[in-house]
Amino acid sequence: MTDLRDLLHIKFPIIQGGMANIATHQLAAAVSNAGGLGLIGSGGWDVERVRDEIRKTKELTSKPFGVNIMLMSPHAENISNMVIEEGIKIITTGAGNPGIYMDKWKRAGMIVIPVVPSVALAKRLERIGADALIVEGTEAGGHIGELTTFTLVPQVSDAVNIPVIAAGGIADSRGLDAAYALGARGVQIGTVLLASEECPVHINYKNKVVGAKDTDTVVTGRNTGAPVRVIKNKMSRQYLELTKNNNIALEELETLTLGSLRKAVFDGDMDFGSIMAGQSAGLVKAVRPVKDILDDIFLHSLVSKDVFK
Ligand code: TUI
Question: Atom 24, ligand 1: which residue's CA is nearest?
């Protein structure tokens, strides 16, 4: 099977999550320069903002980087065309089925790596040309599926013949090794990068991740169709209270959540902002440079000693 490092021309088999409002040119370039695959997140941005981020990333790194297309975004279709114009070579997708775009991206010669939350979607996307799959467990931050990394990664690995990249719950070399033992040939990390020096989120957000313990995340929106894992705060408690009896108008929830991620990311509002992060926040102990985080994950792993072939 193709090694992820050969497929993507990267030094470490580590890719960055395409975190909405967070995965900017600063973070993507830092990850690519450190030997991983940097990603620009497109969630929450229109086509010109994403184009601007792409151009800025090109100025900061000569290494490969990609763009994540958040499929629930109203701008997804326009962004799906713009990335071709900009000569982007690697696409990841999230929060939906990218089937309608696959043909166009493959004809443009792009490497397409969708996030999948199930075996069924994994098989369907392999059949229509996906080059690799990001298999994301419910330990992840932000919008999530139901299954755990530990159960989903081996099941998808058995079901497909393209490289599997594990995501959800991975923040150190033990996570990388565990992912390989389950059949993955790469990992995606997000939460641990929130606490990097180069990450553009407010310092309060970074400190919240560093200070989080094992039980500090919670899933909101389970009964509204968009489950999202966040660090517990006043906002998540209020949200869960309002949705407990299932009789709240969706518009009211919209008002509550509207702009709440931005509140956390830009204003550092830790009470009423939405602090998206995964369960691995409990493993994150300090704010560090991206290069130290990637070196640590790879160089301390058994994978780097070629234990897993
Ligand atoms: O997409 C993510 N994580 C995200 S997106 C995001 S922005 C947002 N904010 C509030 C509500 C919704 C989105 C924050 N975090 N991760 C990748 C991911 N993809 N997780 C789950 C999925 C997924 C779910 C269903 C992928 C495909 C899918 O297919 C359903 C179908 O149509 O077959």
Answer: 95
